[in-house]
Design goal:
- This protein has helices at about 15-30, 50-65, 75-80, 95-100, 120-130, 150-160, 175-185, 220-245, 250-265, 290-295, 410-420, 430-450, 465-470; strands at about 5-10, 40-45, 80-85, 110, 135-140, 165-170, 200-210, 275-280, 280-285, 285-290, 305-310, 320-325, 335-340, 360-365, 370-380, 390-395, 455.
- It is an alpha/beta fold.
- It folds into 2 domains: about 5-140, Rossmann fold, CATH 3.40.50.720; about 175-470, Dihydrodipicolinate Reductase, domain 2 (2-Layer Sandwich).
- The strands form 3 sheets. The protein has a 9-stranded mixed beta sheet with strand order 16-15-14-13-7-12-11-8-17, sandwiched between helices.
- Helix 6 packs antiparallel against helix 12 (about 430-450) and helix 9 (about 250-265) packs parallel to helix 12.
Length: about 475
Amino acid sequence: MSFSADRLLLFGATGDLAQRMLLPSLAALHADELIADDVCIVGTARSDLDDNAFRNFAREALEKYMPADRRTGMARFLNRLSYQPLDATTLGGYEALAAKVGQPERGLAIFLSTAPSLFEPTIAGLQHADLAGENVRIGLEKPLGTSLETSCEINDAVAAAFSEDRTFRIDHYLGKETVQNLLALRFANILFEPIWNATYIEHVQITVAETVGLEGRVAFYDDAGALRDMVQNHMLQLLALVCMEPPTDFDATAIRDEKVKVLRALRRVETGETVTGQYRSGAIDGQSVPGYDEELGKSSTTETFAAIKAHVDNWRWKGVPFYLRTGKRLPERVTEIVIQFRCIPHSIFGSKGAKTQPNRLVIGIQPDENVTLNVMAKVPGLGRDGIRLRQVPLNIAMPDAFSGKIRRIAYERLLLDLIEGDQTLFVRRDEVEAQWEWVDAIRANWEASDQTPKTYGAGTWGPSAAIALAERDGVSWHDE
């Protein structure tokens, strides 16, 4: 149902995500006049605060996490905020919450930034207080389960109150500018789409590397691991955008139809096509850091690193390997997609002593949002000893070409779309379940083959077996 909400209800409004991302994003949308003046924001959580205390809490969060030059009109933004304490597990407080929200003129958008275990009781409470009607939509923060079975349980609970067209499953990577630019790069330029297939592309690499360790997520991460935390959602969404067929239109249904086709075409990963690792003590940026077992305070078989060789079995991508790699305590924080093109069929420069290298397209997502295409060019100069070639990057001579002058938080885009009802950058149920089906099969293979993580030193690129996973195909990871 299409409506632009004039009420936004934030569950988990005093949590870490709200402080670092949600409140700064909403304040930025307010400063840029992207949300209507009549949009009221109601926060709720267990914390026993009143409106003024919550506004002070929000002000401190904005001062800590939001650049000073983006805090335009902060006093007016804080006046949009109100707060209602709630124990989400009991029905008793939902009537007071409904009274606080009031009667929307156009509609209500709800954002659940809570543990998935609270989704079902929260939805029951919303239904009890008549906060789940046709003029209400709901946004769900990941993780959506720990397996296909648990994901289906969550989705069934949500579907009991909210139809699919009113359910917005969030993967914040889809809100990043360069991720959206991937669609523009492919489908707005005739240069790329004719060669975006197995005939011209040799392989694809997707890397999501983190320098941090557990960072206060001890209980969650040891239950999840790298496969569930990163591969199941962010990395498979990136892969789907790389591989999808051209949609018929830029709308939610057309784009998500094509993404789910890719996810369903993923070949089952076999033994020997994955490597897992767990970091030990080492150094990052010259600073000593502890190992995972030391941070956790006990031994564990949870993987903090995963490398996977994947295949998409369809006409466009048959035979092209996709190398996925993610891990914690790696040398640098970087998220990127590398499209490695094939060699030219014949070099006319060989007789002159020149060697050619295949073209490579690197799509940087974080920390730098950029797109670089490496091409072959002649080395300048005169000489009778032949011709020399070198690889040079095509430089787009425009500052902030892919990220804009203002570095926006991904949640700005997603919260605005939640308020306005655009599902294009949100994940549909069949996508989530296709992702879980593929990931569950990998975990089942690990258990059947008794695969346990290999150790790697913090500050390295993971276990040496991950290098071998690619090198046995003549591929090197893009680490430079």
